[in-house]
Amino acid sequence: MSAESFAESSATTPSSDAPLLVVNNLKTYFKTDRGLVRAVDGVSFTLERGRTLGVVGESGSGKTVLARSIMGLLPKRDVERSGSVKFEGVELVGADNSLMAQYWGDQMAMVFQDPMTSLNPVMRVGKQITEGLRQHLDISKDHANQTALALLSSVGIPEPERRLRQYPHEMSGGMRQRVMIAIAIACGPKLLFADEPTTALDVTVQAQILDLLQTQQRDRYMAMILVTHDLGVVAGRTDEIAVMYAGKIVEKAPTKVLFSNLRHPYTEALLSSIPKISDPSHTRLKTIGGRPPNLINPPTGCKFSPRCAYATDKCRTEEPPLSAPDSDGHQFSCWFPVELSAKQTSGVR
Amino acid sequence: MRDPLPDHGEELIHLMHDSEARSDVPADSVTQHFAAVSAGTVKAKKKGLTIGAWIAVGWMTLLILAAILAPVLPIPDPINDANPLKAAQGPTLNHIFGLDGNGRDVFSRIIWGARNSLFIAFAAVITGFIIGGALGLISGYFKGRVGGVLGALTDILLAFPQLVLALAVVSFLGRTVFNVTMALAIVSIPILARITRASTLSWSERDFVTAARAQGAGHIRTMLREILPNVLPAMLSIALLGIAVAIVAEASLSLVGAGVKPDVTTWGNVIFSGQAYLREAPSMVLFPSMVIFFTVYALNYLGDVLRATFDVRESAL
Amino acid sequence: MLRTFTLKFLRLVLVVLVVTFITFGLTKLQPGDPVSKIIPFGTAQQKAALTQDLGLNEPVYQQYGKWLGNFLQGDFGKYYDSKQSVNTVIKTSLPVSLELMLYAQFFALLIAIPLGVTTAYRAGSKYDRGANATMFALLALPNFVVALLLAIYVGAKWQLLPTQSNVIPFPLNPLDNWTYMLMPVVALTLGQIAVYMRLLRSDMIATLQEDFITTAKAKGIPTRRILWRHALRPSSLTLLTVAGLNVGALIGGAIVVENVFGVPGLGKRITEAILAKQYPALQSYVAIIAILYVTVNFAIDILYSVLDPRIRNARSVA
Ligand SMILES: Nc1ncnc2c1ncn2[C@@H]1O[C@H](COP(=O)(O)OP(=O)(O)OP(=O)(O)O)[C@@H](O)[C@H]1O
Ligand SMILES: [Mg+2]
């Protein structure tokens, strides 16, 4: 008895020829006392079934808001959400929570950043897994328990019977994140969001969790959006990478292309901030100079221009559009893109 | 010198002083009342007072002025201007709040009642404020055994229904204004001690306190100059609610026949004397009840404004 | 686990001892000699005999010890004059007060919990603001005011319900029992609703911001279930503690309300004993209230660890 069989049975296919996810000009603004926070400001991309997209950017660039906005998980109050999110051809922007609840957990699921706070502290782990199963799949309690057991072993948790009866606080961070993954994949979603799933974890378990996500994604043929601030994390793990800055995608390309041929100065800066194995052990971590942009009163022109080494007057007055994809599927928004030298890539795995 | 406590002292303190598990939970009716009042009210307003706050301030000012000026106001005597022939009348033009069972003017009695009831409540809370505040400051500043024992003591005092405590004190000591005030003070001491202690504990860890100590400031000076100013907002906002609670407690005591003797006009006594005439002249009970309600409301409101302005957190209590 | 419980239990005993000793001391502090108050016109001989009888010439701690010994053996003493046994009075009046407080607590929670949960969910809405303002006003409404309003209108003016009550025990006639209990219970309940609702609401609002609520939402769990199954339990810890501590306020309220309505409960008996200076009886009443209060809070301490597994574990480790 495995969880996969349920994945199949629950997979309803309204229009299977449409791409899995089409995001078009998605905007998400927060109304605050200080003004309108433009956290996501016109993001567009398409994700096909079973493909993976890495979303990379500094802290505050709007990655989390983007993921939650696509999934419709943001509160309605004081949030302006516009644009279009089509999941298998069905428009989700403007859908009410009761419609969304049919997608949440069943068609799309999310693994959150902090496993310490993402699990209900006063509910047994087993219950937290079966709850979603019983919500979406018409199965008995026993059946759900069996499935939960199978799920726990498939995410690499030893002694699953015992773990099922435990509370989250009785587990380590890595274990809890495995549980979160089990919860997310329980109903066999077609799309999995992983929002910095390893940032809160020990370095030693980070790779394990990322590998687990990758194998689960492949085994179940899920599409995955992996959000991270670390280009190193997505390097070998995603089909495509979108680089976000100030709520916009500033560069997007298939992973290989991006690393061999990056064009945006921000991507370049991000990449050089990854510590390299070849560095002498006490090299100081390079960080990108300047402060992340103010999302309430963003700079005119290119949002990155105040921090950009190559910025000109044009950059400061006119905002560069995201270019049409070239033959490699490479897009970027920069008036003076980095030339095809790409020496920086040498240090990347 | 030997330790003031025998070896089992720590154990005993631990035994009596059990606060870790519920440190962020209101431990007595006033703090609880405070928590309920401040729970979920909107975050600190912009600078300046809202209309509501002005109304509350206005009401309290009016009341306090009336209380102070009662002897010179052109109103009948609340005790002696009796007229048995006109007992228990509803409101008329001459007596806007009506007459009580002895034909005395209820309006005048409420104003004189304000004088006595407010005096009792303020005096009780001020006493509690000073003694409880001092105890809290000392026990929070000198952690360890002194603090532990004092903390344990307040906990024990708090572990007792407060109206019963006040009732017992008054009935044992006699129904005078002084004794009722003392009874209510005894009730408010541990409450203020507890919040002051909690607040002091968190402030005394700060760098500027350590710095002051390092520059040679004495304990007393550090407590009064460095810590007290920071602890004061929390103390004041809970004291305001304490006054509200004391007003209600005074009235409750009178109502069960254990308050100040009826020859002193307090709000509680005004209501108590009206209880026998519910059918004939409910106004005798309604008006003083309304006045108590407005006063308590105003004090609750102001306490909350104070809390919000100074950002006193409930968890700090 | 066992150790913490033992410690807590010892603490409970200690509190009761200290409280009863203080009240005992207070009876000794009062001016004048109790004997001349009981029989002001008795001869010197009679007075001496009564003093002897009451053990009033022994040292205070001995008197206290004696009282405590009797109390522990279930002998709560006698009224001075009538020699009526305090035990019989307690037997008839305590159940009435307990019933009153139980109803009040039950209905207060029954109303406050759904209100707290729904207003927290719709925080900031018109519904929430309205409910909140009403509750804020209720906080300022002393229970005796409610009691008197009820007595004036429902009792005296409209004569819908009996005011001077002779509470019929529930087993004899439930309906009669309820008609007599209704007004006292309402008077006692209103203020508590406000306290519970506002505390629960602010806790719930905090809980609803938690990550695990988003997790539940992302699982597709319906809102109703998220509120009641996921958010309520972690939010109810404060509520529970407050409900326990509130027994103190409830006892105070019961004393007032029983007096306003003439309910023959323990609260009424206590005030009577105070006015008649029946100190031995009073002493036992105070002790019983202290025990009641402390026991409820002890029970809640235990419930606490049932509700929150983290506490359960922290304790078993300790
Ligand atoms: N509920 C909200 N109300 C107002 N502003 C918000 C809200 N949520 C997020 N923001 C703002 O939106 C911006 C983007 O936040 P987001 O959490 O998406 O960043 P992020 O890229 O995920 O960063 P991190 O790496 O730190 O997780 C931030 O400036 C943040 O302050
Ligand atoms: Mg984020």
TrEMBL record, chain B:
Quote the subcellular location field of this record.
Answer: Cell membrane
Q: Which UniProt keywords apply?
A: Cell membrane, Membrane, Transmembrane, Transmembrane helix, Transport
Q: Which residues cross the membrane?
A: 51-73, 118-142, 149-170, 176-196, 231-249, 285-303
List, alphabetically, the SUPFAM superfamilies matched. Answer: MetI-like (SSF161098)
Give the record's membrane topology.
Answer: Multi-pass membrane protein
Mind listing the GO biological process terms from this record? transmembrane transport
What broad class describes the main subcellular location of this protein?
membrane
Q: Which segments constitute the ABC transmembrane type-1 domain?
A: 114-303
Q: Matching PANTHER family, A to Z?
A: D,D-DIPEPTIDE TRANSPORT SYSTEM PERMEASE PROTEIN DDPC-RELATED, OLIGOPEPTIDE TRANSPORT SYSTEM PERMEASE PROTEIN APPC
Q: What is this protein called?
A: Unannotated protein
From TrEMBL, chain C:
* Protein localization: Cell membrane
Q: Which SUPFAM superfamilies match?
A: MetI-like (SSF161098)
Q: Which CDD domains match?
A: TM_PBP2 (cd06261)
Q: Which GO terms describe its cellular component?
A: plasma membrane
Q: Where does it primarily localize?
A: membrane
List, for all copies, the residue spans of the domain called ABC transmembrane type-1. Answer: 94-304
| UniProt-listed Gene3D superfamilies | MetI-like (1.10.3720.10)
- What kind of membrane protein is this, topologically? Multi-pass membrane protein
Q: Which UniProt keywords apply?
A: Cell membrane, Membrane, Transmembrane, Transmembrane helix, Transport
GO annotation (BP), single: transmembrane transport
Q: Where are the transmembrane segments?
A: 9-27, 100-121, 133-158, 178-199, 237-257, 285-307
Q: InterPro entries given for it?
A: BPD_transp_1_N, MetI-like, MetI-like_sf
Q: Which named protein is this?
A: Unannotated protein
Kindly list the organism's lineage: unclassified sequences, metagenomes, ecological metagenomes
